[in-house]
Amino acid sequence: MDSQQKYRKDQSVSKGLYERAVEVFPSGVTHDSRFLTPFPIYVNRALGVKKWDVDGREYIDYWMGHGSLILGHGHTDVLNAIHRQLDRGAHYGACHEIEVEWGEEIVALAPSAEKVRFTASGTEATLLAIRLARSYTGKRKIVRFAGHFHGWHDSVSIGIFPPFDLPNSSGIPEEVLKLTIVLPPDDLQKVEDQLRKDHDVACVILEPSGGFSGAFPLTGDYLKALRQITEKFGVVLIFDEVISGFRYAPGGAQEYYGVTSDLSCFAKILAGGLSGGAVAGRKKIMEYLEFKEDPQWNRKKKILHPGTFNANPISAAAGLETLKIIAQGQVIPKANENGQNIRNILNEVIDRHEINWCAHGEHSIVHIVMNHHCPKQGVCDRGRCTYDYQLLYQKDPLLLTMFRSAMLGEGVDCIGDHWWISCLHKDGVVEKTGDAFEQTIKILKESLPDRF
Ligand SMILES: Cc1ncc(COP(=O)(O)O)c(C=O)c1O
């Protein structure tokens, strides 16, 4: 029996599906992070904070649609909106009323949104934002920060994981990589120096939450200073709010920290658990998407941006309903409170077992760091992590895999080191999660004693 399989019993149907999947999908999966040895779980139903696999096992879900389901699975109003729209047609190949309302809702919520363009995903949103910045400035390079994630297109596939100066994917031409400057995420002087000496930088892109959904958080002061530096050098500032948008505040991190960007990228919560993304921002930059009477403009300046599923009616219906619910104001504080309760219970287990782990974070995301030998251990409040980002991002793949498998065995499905919290992760769910985590730590201490 595989070392991980022993934690996961009675999953012969998932295993059988995986055996078929490897025949049709590379490594049997359709998203890198769903890859899990000896096999992933196959889910066929989800509701609230729970999901069930094809073997009938129940899990508390901390994937929450990769962070897109802050309302939990199957919110009645969102489902009704989807059903209503399905009955009226899935795709009109035409403009429609809900896309207008959806766009208006974004403009109403996000402080920096003057105009909006929908895309089909977060990756497409950052791709479009970078293209807009390049068109607007006429410059080529982008500055990004080590440990921040912006999807998987060529320009941003370097600097995500350590070693930060090497591409995180093969298949990207060196010429493209040379146009992406990766800087440390905590050194404003380096940004200023770069922009002063290099006059070919179109934009600075970052997760305003801090890298990896806020695993290495930033402060409002940092964002304000970065805003000033980019303004000083005429460089477009792009906030990638794919995670923080509609989560940190109804208007995202830009509202929470009181700093506006030139362009913002949204996805995930934006589309209420369906596929969708958006770029929003200043009129004078978004203008590069416009058709004008001047044929020279249309031929030379206008950005090409088609996309079959931009603002598709089903995503628009789910997204609009979700944003309207968030705008009422109760969802985000509830999800934040749940996040704090979950962090507390995990840290109680960590302290009881005297291990070098930490569950940290603010807002409705829980970050787990394993064996990080933090010098602040014991004196840190495990809220705002200020530990060295280079060490924070060093992961132990075997420990992570074993952790995920053992947690599955205990009835909790989590991505490993980032957990997505919804407004429904409360009451008994928190205690059950604490018990599953405690049992998992005991199992791991026994099977991987050298890691503790
Ligand atoms: C901050 C951030 N930007 C962009 C993306 C890419 O979004 P998508 O997966 O919709 O392409 C993600 C996805 O996790 C993300 O976390």
Question: How would you describe the overall organization of this protein?
Answer:
The chain is an alpha/beta fold. 40% of the residues lie in helices and 14% in strands. It has helices at 12-24, 64-67, 76-88, 97-109, 122-137, 174-177, 188-197, 211-214, 220-232, 252-257, 283-286, 295-300, 313-327, 331-352, 389-392, 397-409, 428-447, and strands at 43-47, 50-53, 58-61, 115-119, 141-145, 180-183, 201-206, 216-217, 236-240, 263-267, 277-281, 358-360, 365-369, 412-413, 418-420. A hairpin with a 4-residue loop joins strand 2 (50-53) and strand 3. Helix 3 (76-88) packs antiparallel against helix 13 (313-327) and helix 14 runs parallel beside helix 17 (428-447). The two termini are 24 Å apart. The model has no long low-confidence stretch (mean pLDDT 95). The structure holds pyridoxal-5'-phosphate.
What form results from the Cα inertia axes? globular
Instruction: Give the tally of structural domains.
Output: 2
CATH hierarchy: architecture of the largest domain = 3-Layer(aba) Sandwich
The amount of beta strand, in percent, is 5-15%
Give me the CATH fold name of the largest domain: Aspartate Aminotransferase, domain 2
What is Rg? 22 Å
Bound molecules: pyridoxal-5'-phosphate
> Segments where pLDDT lies below 50 for 5+ residues?
none
How is the secondary structure organized here?
Blueprint: H1 12-24, E1 43-47, E2 50-53, E3 58-61, H2 64-67, H3 76-88, H4 97-109, E4 115-119, H5 122-137, E5 141-145, H6 174-177, E6 180-183, H7 188-197, E7 201-206, H8 211-214, E8 216-217, H9 220-232, E9 236-240, H10 252-257, E10 263-267, E11 277-281, H11 283-286, H12 295-300, H13 313-327, H14 331-352, E12 358-360, E13 365-369, H15 389-392, H16 397-409, E14 412-413, E15 418-420, H17 428-447
Helix pairs in contact: 3-13, 4-13, 7-9, 14-17, 16-17
The structure holds pyridoxal-5'-phosphate.
